[in-house]
């Protein structure tokens, strides 16, 4: 210890595994040199107590020759290295420490970059949704109103012009009607107004109705929550997951039915979208070109939510979206 202290390491020693666990919780960025056999437990218990996702703790296991197999097993649990407690042990330690320090610093940079990317991705999502909302409104209001005015004028003209031109005017009115419909569809695909006025549950029901109107695949809503208290950003994020998942069902699944299950489970808002088609493959899930899937997986991260996409055992694909229930409504 004296030798390490003189190399500018800040060193603390604990005796038991229980003390080690507490110490590590309070020092989330550290290097731990640990004996396999502790007074009150073996070191694997200590390693298992660490939350992998957040921890920047590196373990070096000290082991006797007899325990090498165990040390290897500990590395599978996430330990960085092991050193054998022989007479050269003190000589090797600084070199191992240097390596582990480099490794820790790379992990720190990586963690920072991931956090930065997540912030960037969630800002981009918000900006994109604001833009879509604005364009949807403009298309709906400006273009929609102009087309309606054209239709009114045409209808008036129909009574004023010679009968031989009536057919042509009738066709133009029909074309205008179809254009009005297209404008509504484009606008609601960009941003469904029902979401702002009646909330997520109504928007989901409306989306399912539209889905059933346009697709031969039968879409059912299994459970229905009475209410959810979500912020606008959370609602639109969940809605986008549903929209992308159902688009994928139509485009790729070959399914006959798709079921949406909306429920509260273990303090989470859960939305499961399960189809009975051919099922997404692992290769497709991890393909860099799978932007729709990548977008779904990222979508709920800003609120510690998750989206998991899996192939179902009975065939088909399951998209499972979860948001912490207690947070709903609190976060913008
Ligand atoms: N419900 C599904 N059933 C079967 N295959 C799917 C399903 N959803 C996605 N896939 C597969 O995963 C791929 C990636 O999906 P996605 O990232 O949404 O991209 P895109 O829809 O633009 O092809 C699809 O091309 C398809 O092969
Ligand atoms: Mg897609």
Q: Supply the CATH superfamily name of the domain at 198-324.
A: Histidine kinase-like ATPase, C-terminal domain
User: Per DSSP, what share of the residues sits in E-state strands of 2 or more residues?
Assistant: 15-25%
Assembly state here?
A: single chain
Which strand order spans the largest sheet, edge to edge or round the barrel?
4-5-6-8-7
Number of helices: 10
**Can you list the ligands bound to this structure?**
adenosine-5'-diphosphate, magnesium ion
Low-confidence segments: 328-332
- What's the mean pLDDT score? 90
How do the helices and strands follow one another from N- to C-terminus?
HHEHEHEHHHEHEEHHEE
Largest sheet: 5 strands, mixed
Walk me through this protein's architecture.
Strand 7 and strand 8 form a beta hairpin. Helix 5 (89-160) runs antiparallel to helix 6. The strands form two sheets. The chain has a five-stranded mixed sheet with strand order 4-5-6-8-7. Strands 1-2-3 form a three-stranded parallel sheet, sandwiched between helices. Helix content is 55%, strand content 16%. Among the domains are: 2-86, Rossmann fold (3-Layer(aba) Sandwich); 198-324, Histidine kinase-like ATPase, C-terminal domain (Heat Shock Protein 90, 2-Layer Sandwich). Mean pLDDT is 90; it is low at 328-332. The protein is built from ten helices and eight strands. The chain has 332 residues and is of the alpha/beta class. The longest helix is centred in the middle third of the chain and has 72 residues, at 89-160. Adenosine-5'-diphosphate is lined by residues 248-249, 251-253, 275, 277-280, 284, 290-293, 317.
